[in-house]
Amino acid sequence: MGIIEPLIPILVCVMLIGSLNSTLFVASRYMLAAASKRQLPTFLFCTNYLHDSPRVALLFQVILAICFSFLNSLDKLISYVSFVVWAQRLFTICALIRIKLFNPKGLPPINSEAIKNSLLFPFIFLIIALFLVGNTIFKDFSTSAIGLCILGFALILYFLFLWERSPLLKSKKYLRISNKINSRKTFYFCPNYF
């Protein structure tokens, strides 16, 4: 490598810190968007009034990252997370292609001023995501099985707490208690610290 050999570890560290930084910020914005649609607790929807940054969601992401870093095998954790992220992207692109092709009832029509793109690029992305998810399933089934269990658990939580036909959402006692807990967390976290 020559002269730059001592710089390689430093450059790798800088790249990893940048990747972690962008991942944390993107995930906190996802949490902010989900909290705005009431799919996560509303205290995650709090933003700093000066900078419009979701500091509570960012702090939550940082705490999760620190907790996960104490697990025994970081390589396995990276494999689980990458599988779940690519599976999530696969489901998202499938949903977007379905909306573009069929525009199901109940959804607002696609804006006439939206940028029109060919469906070639979403299909290319779909093929890449299918390959990455399928490759993980065939090469390391234990990793993909745990990732699929995580996604299955999230689906169960969705049907229990968010689905409009959930029996919990018909219970007035559950709604009263969950709204009380949610409003207390929001009142405590948002104005006092962020």
Descriptive notes:
The protein is mainly α. The protein folds into two domains: 1-70 and 183-194, no CATH class; 73-163, no CATH class. 73% of the residues lie in helices and 0% in strands. It contains seven helices and no strands. The mean pLDDT is 80. InterPro entries: AA/rel_permease1, AminoAcid_Transporter. It is found in: Membrane. This is Amino acid permease/ SLC12A domain-containing protein. Keywords: Membrane, Transmembrane, Transmembrane helix. The chain crosses the membrane at residues 6-32, 53-71, 77-99, 119-138, 144-163.
Morphology: globular
Global Rg: 21 Å
Q: Tell me the structural class.
A: mainly alpha
N- and C-termini, Cα separation: 47 Å
Report the average pLDDT across residues.
80
How many beta-strand runs? 0
**What order do the SSEs take from the amino end to the carboxyl end, as H and E?**
HHHHHHH
Strand content: under 5%
Q: pLDDT below 50 for ≥5 consecutive residues: which ranges?
A: none
Number of domains: 2
Helix content: over 70%
Let me know the largest β-sheet: none
- Count of runs of 4 or more consecutive helical residues: 7
Transmembrane segments: 6-32, 53-71, 77-99, 119-138, 144-163
Keywords: Membrane, Transmembrane, Transmembrane helix
GO molecular function: L-amino acid transmembrane transporter activity
Subcellular location: Membrane
